[in-house]
Amino acid sequence: MHFRTIMKITFVIGGARSGKSSFALREAEKISGPKAYIATAQALDDEMKERIRKHKDERGAGWDTLEEYLNVADLISEVSSKYGVIVLDCLTLWLSNLLCNNPDVKKEIENLTEALKSLSLGTCHLSQVFIVSNEVGMGIVPENKLARQFRDLAGMLNQKVAEVADEVYLVTAGIPVKIKG
Questions:
Q1: Any idea which residues carry the catalytic annotation?
Q2: How many domains does the chain have?
Q3: 68: domain range?
Q4: Cα–Cα separations (whole angstroms), residue 68 to 8, 16, 94, 126
C-alpha cells in the first residue's frame, strides 16, 4: 500500500446557506480515492432527518458518511489512513453538541487542532481535509449568556482551525473567496 502525508487542510467558512458545504464537496470530488463525510448534525426532529437524507442523496454513493457528534478529533485520527479525502461538516454544529453535553469545550477544540496537526506527521493516504464552519461573529451581539458563549467559542474555534489550515475560503452568496493560502 502506498502511503503519503497529508497534502492540505482547507477551511471553508461562511454564513448559513452561503454555499460553503457545496463548495467543499465540489472541491473534494476532484480528488481521487475513497471519500469520507463526517457529519456532526443530529437528527433530533423530522425536519432535520429530511435535511440529512437530502444531503446524503446529494453526495451519492462515492461517499462514506460517518456520523459523529462529539468525538470528532478521535474519529479523524482513526479514519485518516482509510480515506483520500475527508469533509468535516460542520464545526458549529459540533460546538453546539459539545455545549449541550457539557464536556470541556476548550479541551475538545485543542484536541481537534492537535489531531489536524498530527495528520501530516504520520503515514496515511489522506491527501486533503475540508472543514466547514459557520461564521457567526458578523451579526449583532446575542441577547443571552448561552448565545454569547456560543458566539465567543465559535470565534475561537474558527480562528484556531484557520491557523492550522493551509487554505481558508470565505463563501458568501455561493461565491468562494480565498483568504489564506
A1: 55
A2: 1
A3: 8-180
A4: 22, 21, 8, 19
